[in-house]
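Hello,

Following up on my earlier ticket. Below are the two sequence lines again, exactly as submitted.
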Amino acid sequence: MTRRLLNVGAVAAIAATALLVGGALRTGETSVAPPPTAKQLVRAGLEEQQAARRTGDPTHYTRSERFLRQALDQDPNDLYALIGLASLSNTRHHFREGLILARRAERLSADTALVHGVIGDALIELGRYEAGFRAYDRMVALKPSIASYGRVAQAQTQLGDYAAARKTLGLALDAAVDPETRAWAYTELGRLDRVRLRFAAAAREFGKALAVSPGYPLALEALAETEAARGKLGRAIALQRRAVERRFSPEFAASLGDLYSVSGNKAEAARSYARVVEQERRLARNGVDTDLDTAMFNLEHGIDLSGSLLLARRGYAKRPGVEANEVLSWALIRNGRCREAIPYSNRALRFPDGHRYFHRGMIESCLGRQAAARRLFRRALDTDPNFSPIWARFARGQLSS
Amino acid sequence: MRYAVVLLLAAVTGALLLGAAVRGPSPKAGEASSHREAPLISEDPSADNTDVYAFRSLDAPDSLTIISNVLPAEDPAAGPMYYTFSTGARYNINIDRNGDGRPEMVYRFRFRASPPVAFLRSTVQTYTVTRIMGGRSTVVARGTTPPNNIGPRTTPNYRTLAANAVGTLAGGGKVFAGQREDAFFADIGAIFDSLGFRRGTGTTGGGKDFFAGYGVHAIALQIPISQINANNNIAGVWASTDRPQVSVRTVRRTIRVRRNGKLVRRVVRKRVIVRGFVQVSRLGNPLVNELIIPTQLKDRWNRNTPATESTFVRFYREPILAALINRLYPGVINAPERDRDDLIQVLLTGVPSLNFTGTKQVEMLRINLSIAPTPANRVSRLGVFGGDTAGYPNGRRLEDDVIDIAERAVAGKLKGNVRADLLGDGVDANDVPSLPSFPYEADPPSGFDNTKGQQKP
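Thanks for your patience. The regenerated structure is below:
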């Protein structure tokens, strides 16, 4: 909070007054405001991204891009205009573009740690995991910081090395000063517990996040999901409603819809799902590539299955990471093309989770191998009993029949 | 790097503020893309060296006092206070005896957390000071910080609490670590907008101290001069902070262990901290990072030691601030934009017959320990520019007005440009007086009494 106040004060000041000079120059007081400099535009562009992170509202992306492009017009070699645009491209899921921009930034300054963070973010989403992890290692070797610890911890989590991820997040928490950053670190620590099905421990960490930063939406959402996984549907709905109120996010709205759906409140579920559609349109209008997300939502909810397969293919062509493999295999399964789904499912299972085991079980079932299917359904539920509110139920039904 | 200064200088010098640490998205389709995003973190305040002071004081003239501040802009009213030293970081005070930019003495502070109150961080921390000298490490102090200044009910008699936290160094001297009032003073709000001026101008006062009412965390040492033992009595001082490095993959290595008298091989998985520590911040002379070092080299500069400063020398020779001053005040100041050997001398070699340490270019705060402290009524805030050789750039005292000194130096005062004296930020002194004795930097403002509401622009 403090730091933000100071930030705001400083920004306002940029627009207010300057180098103070002796009496000779006092008349300067009435001078006309000059056009913004490249640095001021970069600042404004990055502030917009900060606002987007806080609220989720994608209209900030559009403004951020305008400011950063103007800055780059003035100074084509502005390092942070390039980093800002690269990061913005990643945020909008244009990872190839993000990688190209980040590489340009790298040519300007291979010594700047953040450049390698943004490069790694793009590489990982493009499915180039080893190169992405190397970029993160380089980042943290150049400058250990919350930013690099956070990325390394995510990579460690993805690799299943939870003990290492916990230690790394401990360093991030230790380095964090402002409440929101501390809340973020607690939330990430809670996710590590959640992944290992330690629901009570996870809930405690999310509670810490909410205590240091009341209403922190990422913790509300994570806590809601954990409560749902523990079978406390009523509490989960109350928490998720608060999360949805506090943050623009189709994913949050979809989760709320699912919670209503499994609790039997079809009318509220429909309202939430309508909100998902509306918010995804708004994302798309502001330059976010939502192909995979839309496909996943539709596949989960049985909407336009053949159209979703097209979307999944298109998304896969643009960012062939593990998520795209997962979505595309699910799309093929849902369209009855189970054999085709196998290679995508295999690649998705490089980083296994409940969803991905379940999808594999659906393939087996579809190919008539019921024993294997049951084994995989069980494995999916053992890995995560709440991998999907809707399909976990389905998997349980299959096992009990 | 002083975050608030950098913030404003961004407009000018290309310092970065924001945007660091944007965790890009790594959304999982069908899961919240927002899930994986860390908040936008612009800086690392608990590792951020903001100011270093080195001076002889009137009450302890036979000692050198060094104060290193980190964690700028602590808002005393920010509710549960999280401001503490990082327990993962190493905070170093480095002393060079021979002008080579390598420290002959390092005082390293490591902090531990006290058991949390509920899960809120307690602000009382224990710490250890290790002196590294001649390849040997010796623990020279163990201490405890005072709590942060919350208010008269939670932390009554704060002066006593803080005084009781002053410890002794083995072999002589004093040590302190904990929250202080930020002794830095500057009208940050006014300094770097391009073309307006605050009513009431630099040389006539009237600026607003942007740092009034804010706290910092300080580590402070008072070392007997007899232990410093510097060539010609001129010591170089800088602060640095290191953070542990981690790597994505666990490193496995084979070691030999003795079991039942036999050497056997065992594979151990060395977790997380694989290559020790990386220096993430350093600070000697004030404002060098902000005013001299270009954006794209800041990470590298902060990682380097002062011994390699010659690789940055061209940025001292042609400081970007000089060009900026001329752009802002065309024809008024006429700051020399090139061949600034005068700045190189002050910042990198020392000034002959004052604090010259040799021809090697090393960025550190130099102090001639044979110059006696100036009596209080004769101190000039402009230090050597004001005829007071016991002040900056000969060491740095809490009352030295480094913003005005730096602006005038960059504007060419040492090259005889009399117009340099037109520059100043209108804040000539800190808003609160220093303490008469160690650790000198004033007690932090309390949350209860905080006055920022009126004082902040």
